[in-house]
Specification:
Blueprint lengths: L5 E3 L5 E8 L7 H9 L5 E8 L6 E9 L2 H11 L3 E2 L2 E2 L1 E4 L19
Antiparallel strand pairs: 1-2, 2-4, 2-7, 3-4, 5-6
Length: 111
């Protein structure tokens, strides 16, 4: 069964995952949480994606919202809005596809 951006949480409620792009490298999870809480809806999680080697933000994040309606409202309200000097790109997260790793999905050595 394919993963969906709107999945069930452990309590059986629908949780929608949102992609937030064009983040300033200085944006924190707390700042992003505040931006989303201002648009309504209950947040399940906020995850600013960081580089494994440096620990620095990679400029995007994923936010999980408790309902599809709240997620759609947040997307409408926040897409294009400024946060830390950057216009946010906010939309429904797409499922991760096979072969989407940096090395082309080979998972092994380069010969």
């Amino acid at each position: 069964m394919a993963a969906s951006a709107a999945d069930m949480d452990t309590c059986g409620e629908v949780v929608m995952k949102i992609y937030v792009g064009n983040l300033s490298f200085d944006t924190t999870e707390d700042e992003l949480r505040q931006a989303f809480e201002g648009s309504g809806g209950q947040l399940e999680s906020v995850d600013v994606v960081k580089d494994k080697m440096t620990g620095r933000s990679r400029g995007f994040a994923f936010v999980e919202v408790s309902s599809r309606e709240a997620a759609e409202a947040a997307i409408r309200d926040l897409n294009g809005k400024q946060l830390n000097g950057r216009a946010l790109s906010v939309n429904e997260a797409r499922p991760k596809t096979e072969g989407s790793s940096r090395n082309g999905g080979s998972g092994g050595r380069r010969w």
